[in-house]
Design brief:
It is built from one helix and 19 strands. The protein starts with 5 loop residues before the first strand and ends with a helix.
Amino acid sequence: TVSSEGTHLLLATAVDALGNASSASLSFTLDFTAPVLTVSGVSSGQVRNTPATISYSATGAASVGATLDGVPFGSGDTVSTEGDHVLVVTASDAAGNSATQSAPFTLDFTTPVISISGVVSGELRNSAATITFSAADAHPGATSAILDGVAFSSGSTVNTEGDHLLVVTSTDAAGNSATRSAPFSIDFTPPWRRLTLREAIR
């Protein structure tokens, strides 16, 4: 049994009873190594906010091809449809060894939708405001806020009289970003007017 990978040469010689000789040779190769696949332009599990131009290749392969979402896909093609995708690259060599590499990824071009409750943009109010904020997104990331230029946590209460500006920013896993602002004012002071002397002594 020959089990060493590589190229081999078998040489056989036969001699009959009269001394006649003949020989034959056979060259063959044992290849147990699968092709090595390379994919560029996207990575497995990636969530991105731009189209993806994907290239693929295989070292030591006789053939290589790919599908995207079950449809044949050529190296160097661009994916621009928003949503979840699966790239599957397969290669095989002359010995019948094969290799497969899958790369699921997502294209997300949609910015987060920010919600603010507890205060309305442009509102003038005579009570403290307990403000909450959140962001809805298919691939959530980080959401934060500042009030009058200072970091502000959702669920906190604003009880300082005067004009205020709340700015909420959210960035999703793909890098899409959204900002929503809510200016508002708090006024605890009751109205007053100056009395005349005649009104004061009545």
